[in-house]
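Help! Submission page says 'invalid entity' but I think these are all valid:
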Amino acid sequence: MNKPKKNKSFQVNVFQNRIVAYALAFATILAFITFVIVRQTGTFSLALYRPYVTLIRNGLVNTIVVSFVALVLSLIIGFIFYLMSISKIQYFRAFTEVFTEIIYGTPLLVLIVISAFVIGPAFNSLDRNTMGYIGLITYMTPYMKNVYKSAISSISDEQYLAMDLFGFTPYQRYRYIIIPQVIRVLMPPMMNNFSQIVKGSALLNVIAYGELFYSIRVAQSQNFAFIEGYMLVWVLYLVITIPLSQLTRYIERRWSL
Amino acid sequence: MKIELNKISHTYDVEVLHELELVLTEYNAVALIGMSGSGKSTLIRLMAGLEKPTSGTLKINDWDVTNDAEYKKHIGFVFQSHNLFPHLSLKRNITLVLEKTRNIPLDEAEQIAEANLRLLKLEDQMDKLPKNVSGGQAQRASIARALSVNPDVIFLDEPTSSLDPILTDEVLIAIEELRELGKDFVLVTHVMSFVRKFANYVVFMQEGNIVEQGTPKILDAPKTEQLKDFMSKVH
C-alpha cells in the first residue's frame, strides 16, 4: 500500500521540478514547429542563406539601430507629452488625451503607411524612411507618456510631506529622492516598450526599409527558401526580445521598491 | 511644552476643524484621541506645520508654526505608515537628511544614524531597504530618523495604525523608552492603554471639536457623554 503512493508522489515531483517543467514546455513547442516544418519541406537547410549573411546582418543592425533611436526619441517626446498631460493649460491636456485615444485605436501598420505615403508627401521634402520612423515613434509616444505617469505617481504624497518637513531643496528632492525612485519604477515598463518597438519595427518592411524582416524577404525573393527564411527571421527576433524580457524581469526583481 | 491654538479652523471640502482653542504650558506628552474622522490627525499635521490652517494661529514652544520656516527644523514627525524613502537603506534614510538638510559631514551623520538606530534596537537592520524589514522595524527606523535631527518636539501620528498587535507592542515599547530623552511629545493613537502609560495630558476630539480634555484620569471618569461613549467602544 505504501509503494504505489510513493510512486505517485515521485511522478508528481518530476512534473513539479522547475527545470523539467520548462524543458518539457520548450520541447512541446519545438515539437510542434518541427512537425510543421517537416510537413512543409523535406529538406530544411539554411545553406541557401549563406550568400545573404551580410544582408541579414545589416538588417539586424538596422532593426537594432532604428529601435534604439525610436526608444530614445519616444522617451523624450513621451516626457514632453507627460508634461503636457499634467499641464495647467486645458488645451494641452485635451490634446494629449485626444491624441492618445487616436493612437490607441490605430494599428501600427496603418500609422506607418499613413506617415510614409500620406503625411510625408504632403510635406514634400521628407523621405519615406524618415516618415516610417516618425510613425513608429509617434505610435510609442502615448505608451511612454504612461510609463512616466505611473512612475512619477508611485511616489506618495506622504513622501513629499517628509521632504518638505526635513527641508530638502527642490534640486535635492529630484537628485536624491524622486529621480532615483522614478528610474527604478520606470525601467521595467520602458524595457517592455523597447521590446514592443523592436517587434513593431518589422512593419517598416512595408515601406521597403532595410530592417531584419525586409532583408529576409529580399533574400527569399532570390533563393526561394521561404520556410527557412521565415524560421530564421523568427528566431532572430527572439534572440533580441527574449534576453530583453529576461533582463527586464531581473531588473524588476532587483529594483522593486 | 507650550501649545497655543487660537481659533484654529481647517477646511478640505468641508470644515473639519471648528475654531479650536487650546492653551497648555506644563505637559510634555500630549495625546490626541477620538474616533476616525474626529479631526485629530488633521490637528497634529497642523501642529507640525505639514499643512497650514485655513484660519487661526498656532504656536508651539513659542514658535509661530504657520509663518516661521525655521520651526520645521526643530521637530520630528512620525507618520502613520513608516514613510521612509523606499530606495534608501534605513541608515541612508537618516544620513541623507542629516547630510543634505543639516549640513552635517557624512562620517558624523553616520555616527548619529547608527546611534539612533541602535537606540531603537535596529543595529542588525541598518543596511537593509525598508521593504526588507518588518513593518515594526520600519516604523522604529522612522522614529530613529525623526530623532536624529535632534528635535525639541516629536509628533507621532497613529504610529501603529498599520501594524498588527505584536508589532504594535514592539513599537509602543520603543516609544515609551523615548520618554527618558526629555523631549516633548504630541501623539495621536487608538491604543488607550498606551495613552494611560505615556501621556500626561489627553485631548478628546469629536467632529472637529475638542470635547473634553485633562489628565489621563478623564479616561476613567469621563464627564461628557461623548467621551463615555467613546471609551465604551475602544475599551
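Support: the input was valid. A stray whitespace character was the problem, and the output above is from the cleaned input. The longest helix of chain A spans residues 53-85.
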